[in-house]
Amino acid sequence: MSFTDWEALATQYSRINDARRDTVFVEIARWLGERKPGALLDYGGGDGSFVCGLTQVPIPEIVVFDPTPTMVALAQEKCAHLAHVSVVGSVELIAPRHFDVATFNAVWMSLRSDTECVETLSLIHGFLRPGGTVVASVTHPCFRAQRFSTYRTDFDNARYFEDGSQFLVEMSDGLESVVLIDTHWSLGAMVRQLRKSGFQIEELREIRDRVIDGWVAPASPWLVLYARAQ
Ligand SMILES: C[S@@+](CC[C@H](N)C(=O)[O-])C[C@H]1O[C@@H](n2cnc3c(N)ncnc32)[C@H](O)[C@@H]1O
Q1: Best mutation site among 14, 49, 66, 103 for ligand 1, i.e. most ligand atoms within 8 A of its Cβ?
Q2: Domain parsing of the chain, residue ranges
Q3: CA-proximal residue: ligand 1, atom 4 (nearest)
Q4: Best residue for ligand 1 mutational test, from 9, 110, 113, 167 (most atoms within 8 Å of Cβ)
Q5: Which of 49, 87, 170, 173 has the highest count of CB atoms within 10 angstroms of its CB?
Q6: What is the pTM assigned to this prediction?
């Protein structure tokens, strides 16, 4: 299996009306509203959907970083009316030790090796002020075999302990769909990678799926990890 070509899929991905907008993003916005950060870095922020949805949370400075040029262009367009948001495509343009919070939404599963995970989390650590928090949302590694409202995978739970194994994800909102290749990181692997990168977990929140016609999946599609930079 090869890896997801984000440049090729960026536009298609950004068209999906992902259930996270009503679930995970609401949970993180609630937490940000309580924490009131002065500066937020959205690392791997994609098309800027997350930060554009933070209308009720007054954050004076937001930087969105994404390495995929089409994602950067989409985010620049989407955030053009927001004077406090800047969008960059290079880590060189991110101020070190500056941010109170870094969000890391749906990026961990794009990282291909244990080394890349630790390097990426360590980079994020370097952009945070001492004591800053990374908020990482990931598809819950324990429930990949379950079908959810806007995604399903071909993951077999027998591979749970095979960290770094790849699986297919089909995202669909009923109108648009896209197929991605993601990488599996178990709960234990994510905890180890956070610790190696200088973080200590403060809280885990397991998010329920969007209810469809009264039915809710008997599992959690998304997990949000809150970890403090040591
Ligand atoms: C599933 S999308 C999520 C985008 C956005 N955070 C969201 O929640 O909609 C994954 C994003 O991770 C970005 N990405 C892939 N590898 C990355 C890396 N090593 N560092 C930062 N971002 C990365 C991709 O360009 C893509 O925009």
Answers
A1: 66
A2: 6-141+185-229
A3: 46
A4: 110
A5: 87
A6: 0.97
| pLDDT single digits (tens) 93-104 | 999 999 999 999
Residues having CB closer than 6 A to ligand 1 are 6, 43-46, 49-50, 66-68, 71, 105-107, 110-111, 120
Distance CA(109)–CA(51), nearest Å, equals: 20
Buried b (16+ CB within 10 A) or exposed e, 135-144: bbbbbbbebb
How much is the pLDDT for 199? 98
User: How many residues in total does the chain contain?
Assistant: 230
Q: Which residue has the tokens 């620049």?
A: 76
Å from CA of 158 to ligand 1 middle: 27
> pLDDT > 90: what percent of the chain?
93
pLDDT, average across residues 172-179: 94
Position 196 pLDDT exceeds 90: yes
The class of domain 6-141+185-229 in CATH terms is alpha beta
Do 137 and 227 meet the contact criterion of CB atoms below 8 Å apart?
no
